[in-house]
Amino acid sequence: MKFVVKPKVYLTRQIPQKAIDMIKEYYEIVGIWEEYYPPPYEVLIEKVKDIDALVSLLTDKIDKNLIDNAPKLRIIAQYAVGYDNIDVEYATKKGIYVTNTPGVLTEAVADLTWALILGVARRIVEADEYVKKGEWWKTKTGWHPMMMLGIEIHGKTLGILGMGRIGRAVARRAKGFNMRVIYYSRRRLPEELEKELNAEYVDFETLLKESDILSIHVPLTKETYHMIGEKQLKMMKRNAILINTARGAVIDTAALIKALEKKWIAGAGLDVFEQEPLPPDNPLTKFKNVVMAPHMGSATHKTRTRMGELVAENLIAFIKGEIPPTLVNKEVVNIRKPGF
Ligand code: NAP
Ligand code: GLV
Ligand code: GLV
Q1: Which atom, in ligand 2's list, is nearest to the CA of 82?
Q2: CA 190, CA 193: separation in Å to the nearest integer?
Q3: Which of 5, 51, 94, 247 has minimal CB crowding within 10 Å?
Q4: Are 285 and 292 in contact (CB under 8 A)?
């Protein structure tokens, strides 16, 4: 079923063409923000005034005020799994559907998590610089018993904070490293799944105390904000590595800097930050034992295309009066039926 007058959608950024083509069949794309940086809030406020649908990114602040400025808005299709940038509660109240892109990016993020784990443990970034900058050449030795010694992963304890889709995919990869896997999450997994993952449920404190690698996979919520602070970092092992590919604000950055300075932990691998982009003068940038990436967990060609398709699938289901496949606020269905 195609409409003669198509509902209007605005895209806050260029997404893969495949998705744009799918959306175009059903919606009138009234605009795409073409810059590399996000549309400023004031611009977004203007853009949403007359639209029926919005394709948003995690860098767009979708708050009460913005929603109030969008009287016709019926669906926000987020190009990400995390949606902490959206006031979902208020959107629900207004009968606005919010969708995200879970599942399709799980494996890509789990891979990047492991890249950070190994990168920190085996000092890959430091080593790369060592070779490229000629430091290795200067040593006049091809091999030395004490050169670039790191931390061994094999047989260690991997701690997962937030055993959801990504947490589980990270845990699955630990099998090849013959690791003990422990986890803390809001809910305990069913026994069969624990067995399959070879993962043991522990309380938060035990997770902090026993993990050699602690990897964060909780969403950012009121409850998880600064969940890792000074107190928690002090409980960790001195030779532990902290990995965050979830959201920056789950860690108290000031506390992490202190922990690294005081050597409460051995290192960190970070894909996400409280402030993004991270200013180059941020103290975190001075540590050799911190490996950083610019929030690129899902950044593979395949995954980003699949995320775009899922955004389109959500928008198309909605226009057909169907419940979008990855609806975040399921309760909204009781407030308004899907469709325009
Ligand atoms: P998910 O399947 O919802 O997993 C999140 C897990 O955290 C769930 O098991 C959840 O428990 C648990 N949790 C929620 N609040 C908690 C709390 N207060 N204490 C303990 N556990 C809690 O989500 P996902 O698909 O794995 O994604 C996780 C997060 O990764 C996203 O929210 C996003 O912020 C981040 N992410 C980052 C990138 C990147 O580029 N770096 C890419 C994708 C995603 P319940 O099952 O009870 O809800
Ligand atoms: C990326 O961070 C996402 O939430 O998809
Ligand atoms: C190192 O290259 C070794 O052969 O042990």
Answers
A1: 4
A2: 5
A3: 5
A4: yes
